[in-house]
Amino acid sequence: MSQDFLVELGLEELPPKSLLALSNAFLKGIESGLKENDLSFDGIKAYATPRRLAVIVNGLATTTAIKEIVNWGPPAKIAFDVEGNPSKAALAFANKNAIEAADLIVESDGKVDKLVFKRQAGGEQAVSLFEDIVQRSLTKLPIPKRMRWGSNRHDFVRPVHWLVMLFGDAVVDANILGLQAGRLTRGHRFHYNQTLSINHPGEYVSKLASIAYVMADMDARKTLIREQVLNAAKIAKGEAVIDESLLQEVTALVEWPVALMGRFETRFLSVPAEALISSMKEHQKYFHVVDQQQKLLPYFITVANIESKDPSQVIDGNERVIRPRLSDAAFFFETDKKTTLASKREQLKKVVFQAKLGTIFEKTTRVASLAKAIAKQLDASEVQAERAGQLCKSDLVSEMVYEFADMQGIAGFHYATHDGEAADVASAMNEHYMPRFAGDKLPTTTTGNIVALADRLDTLVGIFGIGEQPTGSKDPFALRRASVGVLRLLIEQALNLDLRELLELTFAQYKSLDKPLSEGDAVVEQVLQYMLERLRAWYEEQDIPVEVFQAVSVKQLSFPLDIDQRVQAVNHFRLLDASSALAAANKRVANILAKAGDAIPAAIDVALLQEPAELALATAVAASQKEVMPLFKIRDYKAALTALASLQDVVDTFFEDVMVMADDMALRNNRLALLLQLRALFFEVADISCLSKTK
Fold it and tell me: 680's torsion region: left (phi>0), alpha (psi -120 to 50) or beta?
């Protein structure tokens, strides 16, 4: 037998950014509780609106599963005496299972005859378990801070007002958070502010929608909002830009969504679009509209939680609300343009970067000097790199960024452009923050790349230099993100720079501090190893085995671009059929050479090559040297390792037919010299022997 089960908790409006998490956790708690009690069901689904959390379980068993419990006792040979009377062990077993000694039975457990007691468990009425399951699920919800209301002794994320619990068409007798369960839910706060009786779980969703103006299904509500917003934008011959996080938040704000389009004065389009979008999105939860060239149009789309008889009134109200917001943005923009970024930089002398590392003004001085040095290495414009480094933080003291924090960098770009700075310098104001997060885009200009590197390197070396490096999960200065940012810039932008040298240059910039950083070599090495460890983790996230990175790290390189080229080559090589055998052979060669010591000759004496297998290997090694050395010079490691894979057969034959550690020392050393040259070919790229761990 089975029935559908419904639980709905009605509340004051829930935090929109938490609604999805609360709903998912409620669902998970109910599901776990049912499984823990061996209650089978066909399906389970969560429903959530700003004023309710609900779960419907379809095909839920009316009783818990019946199971046979088997308790084994002592062996039969010690359970009874010669006269057949139960022993103390048998009586203890009977007492433990609350049965009479006369009821003891003996069965084989597959190995020996033992006393056994069997009983059935389960068969409990499901309805008697619902109160506890729901209560425990609510207790486990991710609520950072609970609240109390009125004289109620209960606490929750918001005050609760009603509780529906139905099993089939019957009300479940339960009391949760001080509420007695019933079948009365409530409708939309404005359209249907009254109770609505739910006869059985199957009509819950449809009855709320058809009568009470409530779309309980969060996914369906989200889909409808997306469609409405896209259709509204088409009226203005534009395209709505739908940010998924905003869409999720708006979905959590409404029970009966109605998308409406408003407009604002075109004069505001002279303000940076990012500021207008930020104001619409963050403050008003509006979707913005763009044309086919992705330029902002003077329209916005709001999602109302009411189906108004006069939508124009709602639109007018929203237009009146957004107008002062956009006016503020326009005022800040015009005010900021009255002073240059260069003059704003002076204000940074009063803004502390870090107590021990000076002000942000001092940071920009270091960044500018480092950017100039990096530009020289890349044969880029040193003048533009230095200028961009000096100005890169100036917009932090602008009115625009003070009001709209997410305009940091973007505002700088617009002000630099207005000031007549070089295009690359202006772009660097925003691009030096890239990548802002995992998977974010990278700078498009050389100057942007350079300042992005310099800014992060300055932070890394400075924070490590004062002993504030990350510990465990604590990373207050986001050094992990900064490290990955530097590595992505060097690798994905193909910047062939020595990371160790960059760190040394960075450290040198701190000599101007009142108390300069000390122990430069130690700090540089510490930061370098920390960043290389981040690189290892980065490859793991790309499903590249750690052994591949270890094979390359043996080389102790500090050019991230070169490291990446080798890692990609070795990762490709490990997938070749010959890789396992050659990895094992390299490991064997490494062990042989390690035992042989340092007295191995560098050159091979061709006259001492006697066995056909060693002659073949020597010939193959010589041919491979001619083939791959040019590839090594252009760092085409993938092609080089692919070519070396052809050595598998001749290497296998050599180890099968040739005794390396021959009694004749001349022969032994010559064969060791041959193996040394073989290993050197692979070691030009990496220590392939590390791959023997992967298979």
Answer: alpha
Percent of the chain with pLDDT over 70: 99
All CATH 1.10.3210 domain ranges of the chain, comma separated, are 344-543
The continuous run of DSSP H or E covering 412 comes out as helix 410-419
Tokens linked to 133: 């399951």
**Architecture, CATH, for domain 2-64+126-211:** 2-Layer Sandwich (3.30)
Tens digit of each residue's pLDDT (9 = 90 or more) over 10-52: 999 999 999 999 999 999 999 999 999 989 999 999 999 999 9
Can you point out the beta strands (E) in 235-359?
239-241, 258-263, 287-290, 296-304, 352-354, 358-359
Distance between CA atoms of residues 97 and 71, nearest Å: 8
**CA atoms within 13 A of residue 332's CA, in its CB half-sphere:** 24
274 Rama sector, left if φ>0, alpha if ψ -120 to 50, beta otherwise:
alpha
pLDDT in tens, 140-187: 999 999 999 888 888 999 999 999 999 999 999 999 999 999 999 999
Residue bearing tokens 């790199």: 385
The counts of H helices and E strands in the chain are 27, 18
What residues form DSSP beta bridges with 302? Answer: 260
Which residue do the tokens 């920390």 mark?
Answer: 530
Contacts with 77 (C-beta within 8 Å, 6 or more apart), sequence order? 113
- Give the H/E segment covering residue 78: helix 76-79
Residue 200: Cβ-neighbour burial (10 angstroms; 0-12, 13-18, 19+): middle
Query: What is the reported pLDDT for 660?
Result: 87
Secondary structure (DSSP) of 277-303: HHIIIIIH-PEEEE-TT-PEEEEEEEE
Burial class (CB in 10 A: 0-12, 13-18, 19+), 429: buried
CATH 1.10.730 range(s) for the chain read 564-693
Cα angle 69, 74, 77 (rounded to 5 degrees) comes to: 135
| Gap between the Cα atoms of 338 and 334, Å rounded | 7
The pTM assigned to this predicted structure is 0.80
Please give the DSSP secondary-structure letter assigned to residue 339: S
CATH code reported for the domain at 564-693: 1.10.730
Cβ atoms of 180 and 171 within 8 Å: the answer is no
Q: Give start and end residues of each alpha helix (H) in 8-55.
A: 19-36
Judge whether residue 694 has pLDDT over 70: no
Q: How far apart are CA 215 and CA 50, in angstroms?
A: 11
Using CB atoms within 10 A of its CB, is residue 44 exposed (0-12), middle (13-18) or buried (19+)? middle
* Amino acid at the residue 277: I
* Every domain range in the chain assigned CATH 3.30.70.260: 2-64+126-211
CA–chain centroid gap for 188, Å, is 37
Question: What is the Cα–Cα distance from 692 to 573, expressed in whole angstroms?
Answer: 12
HEC-encoded secondary structure of 633-684: HCCCHHHHHHHHHHHHHHHHHHHHHCCCCCCCHHHHHHHHHHHHHHHHHHHC
Query: 344-543 has which fold?
Result: Hypothetical protein af1432 (1.10.3210)
In this prediction, residue 695 has a pLDDT band, given cuts at 50, 70 and 90, of very low
Q: Please name the residue that has the structure tokens 């008889």.
A: 309
| pLDDT (tens digit per residue) in 595-646 | 877 778 888 988 888 889 989 999 999 999 999 999 999 999 999 999 999 9
Helix (H, G, I), strand (E, B), or coil: what is residue 522?
A: helix
Rg (CA), the chain: 36
* CA count, 13 A, side-chain hemisphere, 20: 13
- Residue 480: pLDDT over 60: yes
